[in-house]
Amino acid sequence: MTEPVTHEVLARVVREHAGRLAASLVSLLGDFSAAEDLVQDAVETALRRWPVEGIPDRPDAWLFTVARRRGLDVLRRESTYRAKLAQLQWPEPSRPDDRLRLIFTCCHPALAPEARIALTLRVVCGLNTAQIAAAFVVPETTLAQRITRAKRKITEAGIPYRIPAIDDLPERLAAVLAVIYLLFNEGYLSSTPDRAHARDLVEDAEWLAALLVHLMPGEPEAAGLLALIRLHRARGRARFDAQDHLVLLPDQDRSLWDRAAIAEASALLMRAARTHHRPGPYQLQAAIVACHAEAPTFEATDWAQILVLYDMLLHVAPSPVTRLHRAVAVRYTQGPAAALAETEPLQAALSRYPLYHATRADLLRALDRPEEARACDERALSLTTNPAQQSLLTDRLHWR
C-alpha cells in the first residue's frame, strides 16, 4: 500500500482500472450486462475498503479478483458462465484499444442516441448517474432508465464487442465523439460538489480522442475534437488560482498559457480543414477556442470572427447552449442589450442551466440593472454544484 487515499486519488484509480476491467470482462465473457454488474460490485467493495486499508499496489488485479469471486458466488448455477470465470487469469495481455472497443460497442446504432452516450459515460468512463444527468440536463431517474434499457438491449440483441468494420464506423462516430466530448466537459468543469475540475478525466478524453484520430485519420471531426481538447488544456494553468477559484477569461494571466501547445493544436485543426473541407461542430468549436487562444489580450479578441463561427455552428448543430454562447459574442460586437435580447427565447430550454442565469446576470449588470442581476446570480447559485462556480457566484453576491 503506497499511495495516500485522498478522495481525488481514490476516484482516479477506481475510474481508470474499472474502465479497463469492464472492457476486459466484456471481451472475455461476451456478456455485457453481467460484466458491468461484476465491475460495479468490485468498485463498491473498493470504495468501502480502500479508504480504510489503503489502495493496493495492483488495483487492477485486486478489482479483478473481487469481480471474479463475486461472479462465482452469484452465478454458481450457470455452468457455462462459471467455467469462463474459472478460466480467467490476470493480468490479461494489454490491449490499448480495449476501452475504445467498448465505447464502439456501447454506441451501436441499435441503441437510442441518448442511451448510447449515457451508457458509455457510465460504464467505460466511470461517471456517475448524477454527473451524466447534469450533462444532459435531465432528471437522474430518467437517465438511469436509459442506461438500464441500453444494457438490456445489448444483451438481448447480442451486440458484438468489437470496433466495427471501416464501412460501419461513420454511423457510430457521432456518438463516440459525443462521449469523449462530454467526458472532457466533466473534467474541465466538474458537476460534482467535491472538486472544481478533474485533470484525470481531461487526460482520459485527450487519450481517447488521440486514439480515435489514429483509428480514423481521414475523419476531420476526430481531429477537430482532439484540437479542441488540446486548446483548452493549453490554457489550463490560468483557469484557477492557488485556492482553486475560477478565473474568468478576461482576468486570466495569458503568460501562463502554453503557446507551443496552442500552435500545435491550431495546426492540427488547420490541416483537417484544408484536407477535408467538411467543417463540423467540433472543428468549429475548436476554431472558436483558437480565436480566444491566439489573441494576445482579451481586448484583442476577434469577436466578429467568433460570431461568424457561432453562426456556422448553429447551422450544422443548433442547440440552446450554443445560442447562449453566441449571445456572449453578440455582447462584444453589438452591445449588452442586444445580447440580453438573444437570451430571452432560451429561458424554457435552459431554465435549469446555471450558466444561462449567470450570463444574464452579467449582461444585466452591464445594463445597470443590479437587482435583476442579483436574482439571476442567486438562481445560478442554486443550480450549480461546482465549488468553483459557487465561490465565484457567492463573491459576486457579496460584492453587490
Please provide a written account of the structure.
The chain is an all-alpha fold and 400 residues long. Among the domains are: 1-94, no CATH class; 324-400, Serine Threonine Protein Phosphatase 5, Tetratricopeptide repeat (Alpha Horseshoe), CATH 1.25.40. It has helices spanning 7-29, 32-53, 59-74, 79-87, 98-106, 113-123, 129-136, 140-157, 169-188, 199-215, 220-234, 259-276, 281-294, 303-316, 320-334, 336-343, 354-366, 370-383, 387-399. Helix 7 (129-136) packs across helix 8 (140-157) and helix 9 (169-188) packs parallel to helix 11. It is globular and about 65 Å long.
Oligomer: single chain
Q: SSE order, as H and E?
A: HHHHHHHHHHHHHHHHHHH
* Separate helix tally: 19
Question: What structural class results from the helix and strand content?
Answer: mainly alpha
Strand content: under 5%
Helical fraction: 55-70%
Low-confidence stretches: 90-94
Radius of gyration: 22 Å
Would you tell me the overall average pLDDT? Answer: 83
Count of extended strands: 0
Task: Characterize this entry briefly.
Among the domains are: 1-94, no CATH class; 324-400, Alpha Horseshoe (Serine Threonine Protein Phosphatase 5, Tetratricopeptide repeat).
Helices and strands in order:
Layout: H1 7-29, H2 32-53, H3 59-74, H4 79-87, H5 98-106, H6 113-123, H7 129-136, H8 140-157, H9 169-188, H10 199-215, H11 220-234, H12 259-276, H13 281-294, H14 303-316, H15 320-334, H16 336-343, H17 354-366, H18 370-383, H19 387-399
